Amino acid sequence: MVSRLRGNERTLGPVAFTNRTFYTTRMTVGVPTEIEGRWTRELVLKRDLFSTVERGRFRTSGGEAPAVVRRIDEVPWWAWPLARMLFARERRALVIAGELGVTPPLLYAGRQVLVRGWIDGTVMHIAKPHGDRAFFQSAKVALRKLHRAGICHNDLSKQQNWLRGRDGRAYLTDFQLASSFSRRSRLFRLLAYEDLRHLLKHKHRYLRDEMTPAEWKMRGRKTPLSSWWLLTGKKIYHLATRGILGFVDQEGGGTRLAHDGPRIAECLKQHPGVHDAAVVLFYDRGGKHSLYAFVEGTGALSEGQLRDDLAHNLREVPPPEQIQISAALPRDQGGAIRTEMLQLIASNQLDEVEQLTRDKEERSIVARVVAERRNFADKF
């Protein structure tokens, strides 16, 4: 329950809703007016055309609590109508879903700001729950609860919308495309079916041996709605976002990581003193998309040498904002660099890094990388 109402607010259950007017589309780094004095930002988790997502602490009647804010006060004016629509869909869904224990609870909802509780966990594409039967059992239970409450998520094909909590359970997040229903209409049943089919797609990736015959059949049977989306709607969406707006959401990575990241990594690997390299995304103090290059190399290697090489060989590509040289980088069992772990280190989400380390040797490698990290944009 929020501690008090501000301005001309009205309450609905545990959430406070405000009627403040939209006031700016400028890019700022301050606290939204609606929650000024109650919100302390620690990290920018994501920024795109339609919202900014931040992690920090929110003051409630019970004291400060870890939380996540979605704010739309910084979106461009021309993106405001769509941003507002997505924002409203998430707010409607979280008012109901936040009470189910399978999504972050909604702590505050204003005209331009949503504050939801923090779930101590890791997104699926980073957690990689291979062979985790309990996780997928809880995911099915979570989805069943959501559908019984009349909510269809509509965006569960993205792994970043699934969390594996520290308790091992599955949680759902990001309800911008969610639909709320008062009855189990035909449309509701189609959308609920697609939610479950997308869950089975992830189960096929991480727990294939546990797929039942019915699940195999369901995974391969799309609804007419899904087929239409793949043939028409998705192509139009990609044309608008990637072709016209130049926006790419690569597991939350954005356009610059998708376009420039691979070229920078390949160029770095050509240097004789570099064993391997990986490029990930982070956000600077202004919330700007920035690139962080982790380089595994010899002790004689210097950042200046690498920047000179990049300037000479990739003149048209802006260099990464941060370059960190380490003697060793964490690797998976197949020998590939664990970019998901480096992504967390680059963005200072160190509590999640701890959950991913496998053994004493890897903890030692990760500890050295963390100690040498270059990004301190969480210190606002």
What this model shows, in words?
By secondary structure, the protein is α+β, with helices and mostly antiparallel strands. It has three domains: 10-117, 2-Layer Sandwich (Phosphorylase Kinase, domain 1), CATH 3.30.200.20; 121-244, Transferase(Phosphotransferase), domain 1 (Orthogonal Bundle), CATH 1.10.510; 254-371, ANL, C-terminal domain (GMP Synthetase, Chain A, domain 3). The protein is 37% helix and 21% strand. It is built from twelve helices and 15 strands. It has helices at residues 80-97, 124-127, 133-148, 186-206, 213-219, 224-244, 254-259, 261-269, 303-313, 339-346, 350-356, 360-371; strands spanning 10-12, 15-17, 39-47, 52-60, 63-71, 106-109, 113-117, 121-123, 151-152, 162-165, 170-172, 179-180, 274-283, 289-297, 322-326. It has a five-stranded antiparallel beta sheet with strand order 3-4-5-7-6, covered by helices on one side. Strands 8-10-11 form a three-stranded antiparallel beta sheet. Strands 13-14-15 form a three-stranded mixed beta sheet, with helices on both faces. Helix 3 (133-148) packs antiparallel against helix 4 and helix 4 (186-206) packs across helix 5. It is globular, with a radius of gyration of 22 Å.
* CATH H-tier superfamily of the largest domain: Transferase(Phosphotransferase) domain 1
Strand order of the largest sheet: 3-4-5-7-6
Strand content: 15-25%
Q: Please tell me the overall pLDDT.
A: 84
Amino-to-carboxy terminus distance: 27 Å
What would you call the quaternary organization? Answer: single chain
- CATH architecture group name of the largest domain: Orthogonal Bundle
Q: Helix segment count?
A: 12
CATH class division of the largest domain: Mainly Alpha
Biggest sheet, in brief? 5 strands, antiparallel
**Number of E strands:** 15
Tell me the CATH topology of the largest domain.
Transferase(Phosphotransferase), domain 1
Label the overall shape.
Answer: globular
